[in-house]
Amino acid sequence: MIIGEDGLARPAWAAADPLMRTYYDREWGLPVTDEQGLYERICLEGFQAGLSWATILRKRPAFRAAFAGFDPDVVALFGTADVERLMQDPGIIRNRLKILATVKNAQATVELRKDGGLVDFVWSFRPSSTPRPTEVTDIPTQSAESVALSKALRKRGFSFVGPTTMFALMEAVGMVDTHLLGSHRRGSSGIWPG
User: Fold this and answer.
1) CATH topology of domain 2-172
2) What is the pLDDT of residue 4?
C-alpha cells in the first residue's frame, strides 16, 4: 500500500497515475448491474488482455465512441464495413479478433435476454465469500467461479472471456472485493463487509 498526498492508502497500481487513482477511488469494485455497463466491462476486459488497464482506461472514451456507447443492440448489427472502419480507428486497440469478439459478445448479450439477461446470468456466479488480502500477492488471478463463468459465457457465444479475464471482471464490478484490507475502499461495494 502507498499512502497518497490525501493520506489514503492505495495499491501501487492506483497510486501514481491520476487516471488510475480516480478509477480506483470512484469506480473499480463498485457494483455494475445494468446490461450496457456489464457488456462494456466484459468487452474492455477482453481488449485489456495482454495490455495494461491504464492503456484501456485512456482509450475508453474512444472505445465508447467507436462502439456506439457499448449499446449491444447497435453493436450486434455491426458488419464487415464496421469492422474495417474500426480497424482504421487509431483511438482504440486495432485487434481484429477483439473487435470481432465485441460484435459477437453484443449478439450473445441480445440473445441472452431470452433467458433472463446478461446481468442476472453473470451475477449468478457471485461467490459465497470474497478474498481478504493483506498484500497484493494474496490476490488470486482466478477462482472456481471465474472458471465456471468463463465456460458458461463461452457456451453462450461470448469470446475473450477466459477465467483470468473473468476474475478481473468480477473484481471490477464488485462481485468479489480484492481491495487490500488496509485500503480505504475495502467494503465500499456494499456487497461485502470491510
Assistant:
1) Endonuclease III; domain 1 (1.10.340)
2) 80
Could you confirm whether 5 is annotated as catalytic?
Answer: no
Tens digit of pLDDT for each residue in 43-71? 999 999 889 999 999 999 999 999 999 99
- Residue 39's closest CA among 13, 63, 14? 63
pLDDT of residue 184: 81
- CA 159 and chain centroid, separation: 14
Gyration radius (Cα) of the chain, Å: 17
* Annotated catalytic residue, options 24, 28, 39, 53: 53
Residue 123 known to be catalytic? no
Q: What is the DSSP letter of 23?
A: H
Query: Catalytic annotation on 45?
Result: yes
Task: Judge contact between 157 and 107, C-beta under 8 A.
Answer: yes
| Active-site residue, selected from the candidate residues 35, 40, 45, 145 | 45
- Among residues 23, 28, 39, 192, the one annotated as catalytic is 23
At CA 81, angle to CA 78 and CA 83, rounded to 5? 65
**H/E run at residue 114:** none
Residues 6+ apart with CB under 8 A from 42: 105, 122, 153, 158, 161, 169
Q: Give CA–CA dist 49/76, Å, rounded.
A: 22
